[in-house]
Amino acid sequence: MNDHFGRFGSLAATLTGILSIVYAIFFLFISRANEYVGILGSWIVLGGTAFFALAAYVALYQHVKTREPGYALFALLLSGMASFAMLQHGAFQAIDIFRRGALDSALGAPSQVDPAGLATFGVVGISAFLWGWLIVRTNIFSRALGYVGMLNAALLITLFFATIVGSQPLVLLSGGLTSVIIGPVWWIWLGRVLASQRAAIVSEPALA
Q: pLDDT digit string (tens) for 143-173?
């Protein structure tokens, strides 16, 4: 049995984890040496991450829908909405910076397409919690993976509220943890699990 999308989904999940680290490198480190390159690069990476994250969620949906079809569809729809808004957010900011050729004070204003990271952090956090909960509830994968997903969700939601209230220390703490540690662990682990499940599906005829 062929499962071409399963392979793409597993690779997409792994790439999402890697891009999360790349985003942090641009935003936290490169921007200190060259603010223009660092901020521009971070927005480009954010937009690209949305594409791969959605592909990974679709692959995950294919596994959990058989046991919790309603919640799985709800999580997928939320993920799709948030991914599209994240892509818009990253593209809008990157194009704006590129056209201006420099950063200015206007970039510190709330995004017109994703105010305060409502989709990028808030809705993504809610959907991540749902996926983690579904993994724990269905027991289709390791429950530990589900708990890591729920922890990542908590960090994303915390980051959203920290952005709203303007708490820079909390933004750096929650953002750093989800971008550099917990988020990459969740995504790369999910990629490995999806890859192993695909291998099992592909080998089914040989075992029959």
A: 999 999 999 999 999 999 998 888 889 988 9
Q: Which of 28-32, 39-43, 73-77, 204-208 is the least confident region?
A: 204-208
Q: Distance (Å, rounded) from C-alpha 181 to C-alpha 151?
A: 11
| Centroid of chain to Cα 65 | 20
Q: How far, in Å, CA of 173 to CA of 163, rounded? A: 12
Which of 113, 59, 52 is CA-nearest to residue 83? 52
Give residue 68's region: left, alpha or beta (phi > 0; psi -120 to 50): beta
Residue type, 204: E
The residue count for the chain: 208
Hey, is 66 helix, strand or coil? coil
pTM: 0.85
CB-based contact 23:184 (threshold 8 Å): no
| Structure tokens, 207 | 């075992």
- What does the domain layout of the chain look like in residue ranges? 4-207
List strand residue ranges (DSSP E) for 78-202, in order.
Answer: none
For the stretch 96-119, pLDDT in tens is 888 887 665 444 555 666 666 777
Q: What is the CA radius of gyration of the chain?
A: 18
Separation of alpha carbons 179 and 23, rounded Å: 7
Closest of 98, 100, 7 to residue 56, by C-alpha? 7
On whether the CB atoms of residues 83 and 37 are closer than 8 A, the answer is no
**Which residues are CB-neighbours of 32 under 8 A, at least 6 positions away?**
38
